[in-house]
Amino acid sequence: MRLKAMSIDPRTLSQLLQLQILGKLNLSSDNSSIPSDDTLDSSFNDLLQSLLGQYAQTQPASSDPISTTSSLLASGNFGFYPPALSGPSSYDPLIEQASSQYGVDSSLIKAVVDAESSFQNHVVSSAGAKGLMQLMDDTARGLGVTDSFDPQQNIQAGTRYLSDLLRNYNGSESMALAAYNGGSGRLARLGITNEQQLNEKYGLLPQETQRYVQKVLQLKNNY
């Protein structure tokens, strides 16, 4: 299994993206002064590739993919995932309450909510998961939820479920997140019962679950 990742300073990447967007949204009345999309894209891509090349030259090569994966999982250093655009969440009081009640870091809860629903309360996935923390109906019923679109019930139940997973996996956030997304049964079938085994068999997880774990751990740093 080999997991490659490159971390770029989010501020630098943000500036590059803003330059591209501002160029395309130039409100000048003189249309002849506005560069074409192709010109903007080419300039942006050239600048981005130059930045990536300079960064790669400064990074030591790793001959131990398992060690590399372990370090990435521990640090959440997978790339840039911007925080929710809405700023401070109106659900913060509910999240803090659930955090205190179930002993789960509030930044982890916020990251899960962000990744699952982008803080949109009435989201329903194609699989039928509902609400802020995307609870499946069976899971929600088992946790005493009567309305998955009720923010308080959803956050309470989702945090309780996350707390149970953290306890089952000795506090490993990577393990808990992999189980939250892919199911504990899948991890068991793959023979993944601890973080070392997760590192060793990470590539056996579905791509969706791999991306989910990476995304939530990175988003957690934003909260």
- β-strand percent reads under 5%
In helices, the fraction of residues equals 55-70%
Multimeric organization: single chain
Tell me the major beta sheet.
none
- Helical segment count: 11
Number of domains: 2
Rg, nearest Å: 20 Å
Form type: globular
Count of DSSP strands: 0
Task: Explain how this protein is built.
With 223 residues, this protein is mainly alpha-helical. The protein has two domains: 9-25 and 34-59; 92-220, Orthogonal Bundle (Lysozyme), CATH 1.10.530. Helices cover 59% and strands 0% of the residues. The protein is globular, with a radius of gyration of 20 Å. Mean pLDDT is 77; it is low at 1-7, 21-37, 58-69 and 74-81.
Index terms:
223 residues, mainly alpha, Lysozyme, 2 domains, globular, disordered N terminus, Transglycosylase_SLT_dom_1, Lysozyme-like_dom_sf, Lytic transglycosylase domain-containing protein
Helix and strand topology:
Layout: H1 10-24, H2 37-58, H3 65-75, H4 92-102, H5 106-117, H6 137-142, H7 151-168, H8 173-182, H9 184-189, H10 195-200, H11 207-220
Domain Transglycosylase SLT: 94-191
InterPro entries: Lysozyme-like_dom_sf, Transglycosylase_SLT_dom_1
Protein name: Lytic transglycosylase domain-containing protein
